[in-house]
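Q: Could you fold this chain for me?
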Amino acid sequence: MTSTQQREVLQRQIWQIANDVRGAVDGWDFKQYVLGTLFYRFISENFTSYMEAGDESIRYAEQSDDIITDDIKEDAIKTKGYFIYPSQLFANVAASANTNESLNTDLAKIFNAIESSANGYPSELNIKGLFADFDTTSNRLGNTVKDKNQRLAAVLKGVAGLDFGGFDASHIDLFGDAYEFLISNYAANAGKSGGEFFTPQHVSRLIAQLAMHQQTSVNKIYDPACGSGSLLLQAKKHFDAHII
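A: Sure. Below is the predicted structure, expressed as structure tokens.
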């Protein structure tokens, strides 16, 4: 699948998720749930790859939490900066999302556990607050627990349905493209919460190209008026494509 095709699939999938939760979650808030879920899937897959260390027969997601010793957990945290038990992995949570009557509270506990796993380690400050914007108990998701769980399940299933052969194998920047797509579509109605600070992609792309014209090496990119980060994302793409 080409990068253009992957990007089109990503955008269609995001709109499908949006349709599933439409009317309950404001567009600007909705992007936090999609991006948070994408990130949850990414760190789960990344952590699984680390635990399996190239040996697919290990099947970390299918293991029991009971096999995790203190030494295993400590070594993983020192290397990855955090720890995720098999039962806490995105794939396992998404698989049972539709039937999990305590999905919203389970997710909150999992996110808290992932962040807390870094307590006392050098990575603590980097991990703390990773899921701060992903409020699984917010009334924006619905007035009842059932409503909240249905919409959370829709987001989880939607992100689980993105089949790019894993994040590492994707030809596009999933987070960057998802973020830009969401923010560009919702910025117009976001007011000061985002719309006034979003630079259209074509403008950001031109600025990035001008700033890096004839540059052979770059070690810092600075946007003194950074709002949504769209300009920095375009700069990164141009940097990756044209500067070694």
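A (continued): The chain has ten helices and no strands.
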